[in-house]
Design goal:
alpha+beta, T-fold, eight-stranded antiparallel sheet, three-stranded antiparallel sheet
């Protein structure tokens, strides 16, 4: 039976909240807001302040960055970059400081993962519409042609000047933008004296400090395809990020086959590596976002090898049989 993401939007919004974070309430309720941003549910909770203007400013930051990083909004910077490429990509494109910073990070993790994370996947991801009423996988030929334009090594970034080696290349920052935004929200809240808060951008959970009673926050990792609020592991987290990615987030079924949104830059089709989900525990949310995609594409063995060669970062891989496999330093 066909199950497209649009038809399951209500369920999807529910599932994004299953990667939850809870704090110990004081005499007063924590300050919290929930909104729909970046095509997902965003929840911001502050435990040691009751200045509502802080939450309003955080949501304004979400709006600001969506207007920069969105691949589909005609008024966004990345959309305009991709349109410039479609028109011939002559010379170089001047980026904002924020776009240049995030693209530089994406290229760096592309190099680190040998292309498992490739921000030039745009021509391929544009072929996949998981929000369609009746989604269809693209043809092999369409994907083959699009893959000719996918190679992060064909991007040159000098300062804020970007150039493509081939006209028609596109940047897609959807896999890493939420991590960057979460880190910027954290920077803002810290600048305002907040020391206890949780930023949840639909699967990207970033903890500021710890609970007001000086104990860690509790972050639950969702069990893939669970029909109710179930977690496969809970973590004690202080001032760290937990980023989870899984095939259950956006997918559809066609002719008995499941097509999910995590695309392999080598094939242009959803990854097939016996993984259903991955969670990364790291110092920054951007690092977790980049590594969650890269390690998912690499698969459980190579992904684990990459993580264990990095400091202050660890991961949990959930294979299709529902079993968890963690790196050596992942908390038990």
């Amino acid at each position: 039976m066909l199950r497209c993401w649009k038809k399951l939007l209500a369920l999807g919004l529910y599932l994004t909240l299953l990667l939850f974070a809870s704090g110990c309430q004081t005499a007063e309720e924590p300050l919290s807001v929930t909104s729909f941003q970046f095509n997902t549910v965003v929840t911001l909770t502050i435990y040691d302040s009751h200045e509502e203007a802080l939450l309003e400013e955080c949501l304004a930051l979400c709006d600001k960055y969506e207007a920069i990083f969105s691949r589909t909004r005609p008024d966004s910077e990345i959309y305009q970059l991709n349109q410039w490429s479609q028109r011939g990509a002559v010379g170089s494109f001047s980026l904002s400081e924020e776009a240049a910073e995030l693209i530089a990070a994406g290229l760096s993790y592309g190099e680190l993962s040998d292309g498992a994370l490739d921000i030039t996947i745009g021509p391929v991801s544009a072929l996949w519409d998981f929000t369609a009423e009746d989604p269809e996988p693209p043809s092999q030929e369409a994907v083959r042609q699009a893959l000719l334009l996918v190679n992060y090594r064909d991007v040159t970034l000098r300062g804020n000047q970007l150039s493509f080696a081939k006209a028609g290349m596109e940047v897609d920052l959807g896999a890493i933008a939420k991590g960057y935004v979460a880190d910027r929200i954290k920077d803002y809240l810290l600048s305002k004296g907040v020391k206890s808060a949780i930023i949840n951008l639909g699967g990207n959970v970033l903890c500021i400090g710890e609970r007001t009673d000086k104990t860690p926050f509790t972050v639950g990792i969702q069990k893939p395809f669970a029909q109710r609020q179930e977690t496969i592991r809970t973590l004690s987290v202080s001032d760290q990020s937990v980023v989870s990615s899984g095939v259950y987030e956006r997918y559809f079924e066609k002719d008995g086959r499941l097509y999910h949104h995590i695309l392999d830059p080598a094939t242009g089709f959803p990854c097939e590596n016996n993984l259903s989900a991955i969670s990364i525990l790291s110092e920054t949310s951007l690092e977790g976002d980049c590594l969650s995609t890269a390690c998912f594409v690499l698969g459980p063995e190579k992904g684990r090898e990459l993580l264990e060669n990095l400091s202050d970062t660890c991961g949990l891989f959930i294979t299709n049989d529902g079993k968890p496999h963690e790196t050596n330093d992942f908390p038990q």
